[in-house]
Amino acid sequence: MVEGLKIRFEIHxxxxxxxxxxxxxxxxxxxxxxxxxxxxxxxxxxxxxxxSMRFNLHCLKIINKYIKKKLRDHEKILLISAIxxxxxxxxxxxxxxxxxxxxxxxxxxxxxxxxxxxxxxAKNKNNLKEVKISFYDFxxxxxxxxxxxxxxxKNQFINYFYREPDIHIVFKNEKKLDKFxxxxxxxxxxxxxxxxxxxxxxxxxxxxxxxxxxxxxxFLPLYNFQExxxxxxxxxxxxxxxxxxxxxxxxxxxxxxILNDINNTRIKTLKDNLKRLKLNAKIINKDFxxxxxxEKYDIIIIDAPCSAVGTxxxxxxxxxxxxxxxxxxxxLLQENMLxxxxxILNENGYIIYMTCSxxxxxxxDQIDNFINKNSNFLIADFELIKNExxxxxxxxxxxxxxxxxxxxxxxxxxxxxxxxxxxx
Length: 424
Hints:
Low-confidence stretches: 29-35
Distance between the termini: 72 Å
Mean pLDDT: 93
Strand content: 15-25%
Number of strands: 15
């Protein structure tokens, strides 16, 4: 048995199901059928699988340089995984090539093609590390949906989209941050980037429930909203609450919030997180668009289902899958959520509309369409806390929007947020 064959074959099968059948990495239980499942095995699987998707477009450029024949899906995916390991992860070439050839035999592919191609690529791997992609290498659906991006923004996206995400954490309060046992680059009085990402969930402060992981882009809207609004006695509703980061921000400030999520699996994650953090809240498991109109709220948080392109570094399967997101379905759902929220919001209340997308159709267009149809709402200014100049590039007068970007030399997600105030 060639060393590493079983786990690499598992990686191939996962990548194939994501590409061909629109699955996600979370659909797989990651029960690796090798002699003994270990942390190293799971780490290896995640490393290769995620980076194969992150460097998918780079690998396709390399494949087109060395192979002129049309490849079958299994051949293409096998080569993408192998090239990622050889060129971008610097794994031992002979191990990768030997395993790839054996997998080709198992799948009844042409092992000679795999062997010869990978040997040529391995010889030139140092030069191939510098392969460049253009905006026209992205999926056609993405090119069409980003027509409004400037040349600078497009180049920024090209430079950042495939990088591994950094870990940003949020503390319950300032005292918890001050007691943090490791180095931290602060982003506010209660948040910061971890410098040492290895086994960060084993830190005692995490186990004690002092903090949770939440991207800076996702954290900023509610952090600023709470600083500039007196929310005492207000009734909050988080309509898509799981895994809980935004709700935890509200709960840490001792405000009254009801948590809802339609997905049972995500509800379980939400409950586990609440238990670790020692926070309590009422949880509902319903379709928000079917909520009873009699129950009213002061502040409704909608982190709406979307294409999630802003989280491309965490979810690289977005560009790896053959099919595009179902925009018709997503846009309609976002509209329905906004309409439902408007019907159960108290006067002078706020809808906080957010998406982990920067596509105009899911962000600015949605808000403009809503305002045009609802004269009793206005878009409130998105105010930044004083001394937050580092974040000013993320904010326009009445909303926050950013493509995947860098702040303080750390990677952050693409994101959108707007505050909609009901005035009568």
